[in-house]
Amino acid sequence: MIEFFSTNGIALLIAVPLLSAFLTPLFEKINRFLRNLYIIFSVIVTVTIGFFVSYTIFVSGTLVYTLGATEPGLTMPSGLRVPVRIVLVADAFSAFMILSSSIIFFVSTIYSFGSIRKGFGKYFSLFFIMAASVFGILCTGDLFNLFVFIEILSISSTGLIAFRKEKPLSLISAYNYLIVSAVASLMILFGIGILYGQYGMLNIAAVSRAIKFSFVDVFAMVLLIAGLAMKCGSVPMHFWVPDAYGRAPSAVTAFLVVSSQASLYALFRVSFMLFAGFSLIQLVALAIITFGLLSMFIGVTMALVQKDIKRLMAYHAVSQTGYMLLGVGVGLFSINTTFYSHGLLAMEGGIFHIINHALYKGLLFLTAGAIIYATKERDLNKIGGIARKMPFTTIFFIIGAAAIAGLPPTNGFASKFLIYESVFVFNPLLSIIAVIVSMLTLISFVKIFCSAFLGPEREELKNIKEVPKPMLVAMSLLALCIISFGLFPDSVLKAIIEPAAKALLSQGAYLEAVF
Question: pLDDT tens digits, residue range 195-236?
Fold first, then answer.
């Protein structure tokens, strides 16, 4: 059994949720209780496979799974004979992202059982498709299939953003997201098409060996990086984030954070795998660093003026994406330079921040959903004194707010400190900007805490009560992870962060496994 999952795990990670998406409506026709049992079973199986695959990769190395021919059978225009197949590849960086996505997928499912009141079967069908597409992005070794999974993710996410179709703003947000996703996907497809036209190959490892960095290749690089930056919500292509994050059901919003990080994974994978050998790679790195700085500063300043609690947190999601781009951008810049050791440390900080952001931003969106669920209000000016009625939600919010502001002993402090320390050696000004953004983030969440949780109790909110237990359980799991990662950062770094950073920075194991 263990050997079976070791061999087929990365394929099952995509196949199980995809199959569940189609079977869930059938079980709903039979019996709702049976449907719920099947959903729980499918999620547990998917998450178990995700954890097992991640553990196997961290212990044994890169996994490769081939669907199709194993021997060359098709002659390409370039004269190269290749087998007709789809290759799934997962290295330590993929395993790290699979682990992060699995945690949020599990927690979001629990939260959904308490927060979703109608359309349960349809909701989980889309949710399973969304999960399958995220895992597909993280495991594919093929550029065209990367595009296909991004498209599937866009369509399923659009359906979930518009899930509360009785609210016009949900439909408008979904429409805006769909338009932006279509533009980003078109840019990605054009970039992939250019590379295919040049080399007659779509396998990422094969293209990385064949690429010659001609002017046309550079144009493809610009299209790919711009399209993926748009999908991950980086400034100046972030305009879909506040609406989509703000109007989706909160469990979906938590998983949308992970889906954006899947696009971020694709951005990093393409940058390091295909273009790390480019003579002007430092210019690409500077562009990523610039995206990071703009995202950090514009995101946090826009958050300060928001009154809608979820839009405020959505802008903070944009800001936090900037830290990841900054850390990994500095790491990309350090390739083949004397700054390599500090660049590796910056990459570790940026990668550590990916999972930390998924945890604390997921928790904050769930607490925002709990507030909206209990009070039926989103405007901070109309909420006050709820700490007396919702003590557990209050505690979870404080933990999430401390983490996003980078306060010890939370996980946010651990990853941000790594970024501050390493980036300071690269350029002190960048580190100073990062610290200022964290201070502004703290101010923003103090504002939310004072507005929503403290102050006199509003008459219209006197009958509110704590949210259902599944929602509290989901929030408690994320809070526990945040504290655990903050108290034992060295263990987390050695177990999953360092292997992920080294796998991304050095693609030798990936190429060796594929070829």
Answer: 998 888 888 888 888 888 888 888 998 899 889 988 988 888
Nearest CA among 412, 225, 404, 424 for reference residue 330: 424
pTM value is 0.92
Q: How far apart are the first and last CA of the chain?
A: 27
What's the rounded Cα separation, in Å, for the pair 54 and 356?
A: 17
**Going by DSSP bridges, is the β-strand pair 74-75/81-82 parallel, antiparallel, or unpaired?**
antiparallel
Q: Rounded to the nearest 5°, which phi and psi values hold at 163? A: -60, -40
Closest CA to 278 of 203, 346, 218, 192: 218
Query: Higher confidence at residue 274 or residue 147?
Result: 147
Which residues, listed in sequence order, are joined to residue 64 by a DSSP beta bridge? 89
pLDDT in tens, 141-166: 889 999 999 999 999 999 999 988 77
- Sequence-ordered list of residues with C-beta below 8 angstroms from that of 234, at least 6 positions apart, any chain: 291, 292, 294, 295, 318, 321, 322, 325
Helix, strand, coil % over all residues of the chain, rounded to 5: 80, 5, 20
Q: Tell me the C-alpha distance between 366 and 466, whole Å.
A: 13
> Once rounded to an integer, what is the mean pLDDT over residues 273-285?
78
Q: How far is CA 35 from CA 19, 21, 98, 312, 317, in A?
A: 14, 12, 26, 35, 33
What is the C-alpha to C-alpha distance for residues 450 and 431, in angstroms, rounded to an integer?
A: 29
Q: CA nearest 500: which of 351, 357, 324?
A: 351
Q: At what angle do helices 428-448 and 391-404 cross, to 10 degrees?
A: 170
Q: Which of 165, 441, 185 is nearest to 315 (CA)?
A: 441
Q: Give the DSSP per-residue string, 92-118.
A: HHHHHHHHHHHHHHHHHHHHHHHH--S
Question: Nearest Cα to 312, choosing from 391, 393, 392, 372?
Answer: 372
Chain-centroid distance of CA 203 in Å reads 23
Q: Which has the closest alpha carbon to 147: 137, 157, 160, 139?
A: 137
